[in-house]
Design a protein that fits this description.
Helices cover 41% and strands 25% of the residues. The chain is an alpha/beta fold. The longest helix is centred in the last third of the chain and has 17 residues, at 193-209.
């Protein structure tokens, strides 16, 4: 049976911590949040986690010390440091403390997701939150291609089959041109004037659904096709 990966997140900036926790939950991870090093260690001892994400500059017990304590209990658990301190000395200290990766703030949510996925892949962890679940991050949106839903800030928009298929194509070509004819043949099975007009209607609907995030837009490339433009979502703190 596939399991849901459990992540311990220790971040003293509560707003940032909640933001990252919500993002990881949207990706399908079970995430516990602590706001200082001592609480983080207590939460770690009380749970059976698959990954730890630790801020370095934590009250009561800094991230390096916390990582060392965690390593004394579990030598194999992967650890990622999140920190505003990007100096080489800090990175070296972090790796000596036993971390598997080191991410400097501000960082993109996509980068965090890919680094987590890479660590789980190296560790051979099999989880039900893999990309096979069909979820794609589009700025602040979570697009569930399999279930044909688009979610932002707790609100879910149900999509039709063609809307979901067209959005999936745009995502596969993110920040790159999706030719009109290619989209028509892929979604409608043919390409002609009337199908082109129908596709324009669906593009208008998708633009409306994506209008709640100013960093996401569908651009019309005159005479060529469309481009889903997504500015890198940056989490800072």
């Amino acid at each position: 049976m596939l399991s849901k990966a459990k992540i311990l997140l220790v971040e003293d900036d509560k707003n940032l911590g909640l933001l990252v926790q919500d993002y990881l939950s949207d990706l399908g991870y079970s995430t516990s949040l602590a706001v200082n090093g001592e609480d983080g260690y207590e939460v770690f001892l009380s749970g059976n986690f698959d990954l730890c994400i630790l801020d370095v500059m934590l009250p009561k017990r800094d991230g390096f010390t916390l990582a060392t304590n965690i390593r004394e209990t579990d030598e194999a658990i992967p650890i990622i440091f999140l920190t505003a301190r990007g100096h080489n000395d800090d990175r070296i200290k972090g790796f000596k403390a036993g971390c598997d990766d080191y991410i400097t703030k501000p960082f993109s949510s996509e980068e965090l997701a890919l680094r987590i996925e890479a660590i789980f892949k190296r560790c051979g962890f099999v989880s039900n939150n893999k990309k096979s679940n069909g979820k794609i991050i589009i700025g602040r949106y979570v697009f569930d291609a399999l279930n044909q839903t688009l979610t932002i800030d707790g609100f879910t928009q149900n999509l039709t089959v063609k809307e979901a298929s067209l959005l999936k194509l745009l995502c596969q070509n993110i920040n790159n041109l999706l030719p009109r004819e290619e989209a028509q043949k892929e979604v409608w099975g043919n390409s002609d004037y009337f199908i082109g007009r129908s596709m324009d209607v669906f593009i208008t609907k998708l633009r409306k659904y994506l209008s709640h995030d100013p960093d996401v837009s569908i651009q019309n490339v005159h005479g060529a096709g469309f481009k889903l433009e997504v500015k890198s979502e940056v989490i800072s703190g």
